[in-house]
Fold this sequence. Notes:
Blueprint: H1 12-22, H2 27-34, H3 38-45, H4 54-64, H5 68-74, H6 82-101, E1 115-123, E2 129-137, E3 143-144
Antiparallel strand pairs: 1-2, 2-3
Helix pairs in contact: 2-3, 2-4, 4-5
Amino acid sequence: MQKKETPKNETLARLVSSTREDRGLSQKGLALKANLAISLIDDIESGRDLYLSTTARQKLASALKITPSKIKSLEKIPQTSEADFELADKIEELKFQILNTGLKGHKCPVCEHDLFCRVAVMYDLENNVVTHPKARCSKCPFQIK
């Protein structure tokens, strides 16, 4: 039995999308069958998510009736560079600014377009208020979750 070759232009997005369609599933149907968020399925198929957690990979593979290794073979492992550390520093500074200087006037550290910002207010186990800055870019996929 010969192993099927992966086409050179095959991507994780194409694999998931085409296999899902071959199985007659919508994105919502796949999300329900795999017990994953529909936003994750959308991010995978649009090419925004290139690397999956082991759990997500296994759930997706089971729902699509393919092997987890097939999915893993197409994943792109994130590479860390000096620019990533600089961006991380900019994000931390941006979080501080959102919390301390207000929600307006902040720019995306990736493309320099306006950010839509908010502050999530939550409570810890001891009922202390905890604030988390949130932001998303108006033009590119950048976001602070």
